[in-house]
Amino acid sequence: LESYGSGITAVFSFIKEEQFFTQTVRIEKKRPDKKLPINTDVFRDYLLPGQQEEWKISVKHANGHAVSAEVLASMYDASLDKIYNYEWSFNPIQPINLWGPNSQQGNDLGKSYQSLNIETKWLDVSTLGVPALNTFGFSASNQMLRSGAVMKSARSTGTVAPQAMASEVMVYDADVINEAAVEASVVENANAPVQIRENFQETAFFYPQLKTNEAGETIIAFTVPESNTTWKFQAMAHTKDLHYGKLMREVVTQKKLMVTPNLPRFLRQGDRVTLTSKVSNLSDEPIKGTVTLDLSCHSREGENPLLPAPTQSFSIEAGKTTAVSWTFDVPTGVDATALKIVAKSDNFSDGEQHLLPVLPNRQLV
Question: pTM of the full predicted structure?
Fold first, then answer.
């Protein structure tokens, strides 16, 4: 027998017909099963941007009995994992060391053995700590302009989880966002108004204190952000007696017809700019229609950029993507420009609206 951190290794060896056989078996201390299954009773992994959604998840023991549990749930843009891959980890069961001060050692076929005194280790709950929230070193006075919204953050050090950064740190100026807000419908048909997507927040929701009801169920209601992207949904549940479980799913938001602009972070006065966008057909049939760039950046002199052919025609096969572009000169005396790209067909439509800052054409010496 050999001891290791949380158990004992038993080695069985024998010789038969001049051949040596051996097998190693790990012996663990038996513990109660603390794993808690989390089930998705109502869950959709393909959603329309901007739609109202409601999910229902249930927390029950393996025998099907409902439990009273607290649930933590969040959903954030999965592309943030390219910056910092983050997954929740929760395991309150600490290892029990099976070793003692007295031992005897010897050799038998090259294997050591020990006689052990088993010492019980008790779990000290008070030693469990909570990691501090880190915010990439931003100070409370920092403000960054992002798509016409003010983002504020608090100073700390180290690394922050993507969903915590997006949901807890960023505060958007509602006046700036509402100023350009356009009421949209998520129903895709010819008679519905075009949905102009402009809510591109990276966290769909962050609910740290959901509680299950008598049936072990809890409801997650939220408005889907308007990005065409893949989302990472995570849920974690625990009970007072430290039964715990974790759930992870991917959710995709997309439309049959989608525009995906490739925009710079800012423009500069006097520059000649080419703006491009992809138009994608995710339906099962070819789509024909038009795509239009609506640009508004009135200068103090009353100028507005001249767009040659602001409306272009497209014809896209099923499952294919095409690219469109517009070239124009940025006028002087402009601080910001609002642009809207809208694609329409007989049955589908999509649009995005963005606010880009315009920097002055000057150089500090």
Answer: 0.60
